[in-house]
Amino acid sequence: MIKYLFVFILISVTTQAQKLQVIDSEDGKPIANARIVLSEQLVYTNEDGFAPVNENSKDFEISATGFKKEKFKNFSSVIKLQPIFKDIEEVKIINVDIKKIIEDLSKNYHKRYFSKPSLYNITYKTKSFNNERLYFLAIAEAKLWTKSNTYNFRDGYKKNYDEILQMQLNNIKYKKNNSKGIFSISTNEFQHASIGDYFFSFELYRLVNNMSVKNAKVLGRLLSEDDESQLISLRVRSDSGIDISGEITYHKIDKVITQYDLSYQQENFPVEKRTNLKGEEFDYQHGNAKVFYDFYKKEGSYVLSSKKISGAKFFISYGDKKDERSFSTEIIYNTFTKSEKKGLESKVDFSKSIWDNTPVKDDKEATILLSKEEQEFVNGI
Fold this sequence. Notes:
Radius of gyration: 21 Å
Largest sheet: 13 strands, antiparallel
C-alpha cells in the first residue's frame, strides 16, 4: 500500500492596523476562517473572527462556510453574515457519482485551475500541541513561487523540488518553543509527498488512489445546491485502514471544486518504528488529519486562497511514556500574480526545517491577527 505523509504548516500575524470582526447574524458568535477579498489582497479571520482590514477599504467580499456570501461597499468594525438554513424535512437523499467527479477533475486539472508560473505573497503559520497543550508557535511572511501550481511527479521522484516550488522566507514574526521535556520526533526523512502536500492536484491524486483501492466503498450525496454550486458529502472506506469523510463545494458550470474539507481517519494504521535525529527509537501511531483547500476566481481563473492541514491523536511512545501530539498548519495566499520568472533569488532549503533557514527581511504589511490563545502563549500567560 502506498503511504502518503502530510506536511503541516500554518500562519498568523499580529498587527496594530485597523481590524474588523465577522460574526453570525443569528447568535452573534465570531466566525473563524471567513475569507475577505479586498482589491489588492485577501485575508482570513482568526479563531476569534477578527481580520486586519484598513478602515478605508471599499467594495470587498466576505464568505464563510455555512453562510451567505456578501459584498460590502464600505468598512464596518463589525460585519454580520447570515447563515444558510436547510429545511431537514425537505431534504431528499440524492446520490452523486463523486468518484467520477474527482477523477474527471484530476484528469483535467490544468484546464480548470490556473496552471502557469505564479508568485504569491503568503502568510505561514504552524502550531504544535503536546497532550492538548500548545508548545510551539511560528508565524512568518514569505514569497512562494510555483512553476505550474501543480505537483510534477517526475521532478518529485528525482528530488528536483526547485523545479516545482520555491519559497523565500521574508520575516519571522513569531517563533516560540516551550518544548522542555518533550521527546523530539524529528527525523532525517524527507519524501516527495512533503512537497506534494502544497498542491491540490496532489491531494486529488491521493484521493483517487484511496477510491481505487480494492473493495473501497465510495459514497457521495447531494446536500444542497443553487444555480451554480453543489454542496456534496463524501465518504471513502477501504480495507487499507483509512476512512475519509467530509464535504466539497462543486461549481457545476466550471466543473471545479471551490472548497474542499475532508478528514482522514488513520487510527487503524499499524504502529511504526521510527528513529529521531539523536538515534532514539520510538513508536509512532497515526492519528486523524483534516485537509482544507479554498479557491476563488480571479481574472477568469481559479486560484488557491488558503490551504490548511491539522491533525490530532497522533501518539508517540518512548520508554514508559506516551504523548498525544496534535498540530495545525496553514498557508494564506494573500496576493497572486502571474510570473515570468523562473524562481526566486533567495529560497528555502526544504531538506531542513523551514525555521533553520535565514529570512531575507523583506517585510510586508501584516495580513493576519493572533487569536486570544496564541497571544496568551506569546505573552507567556
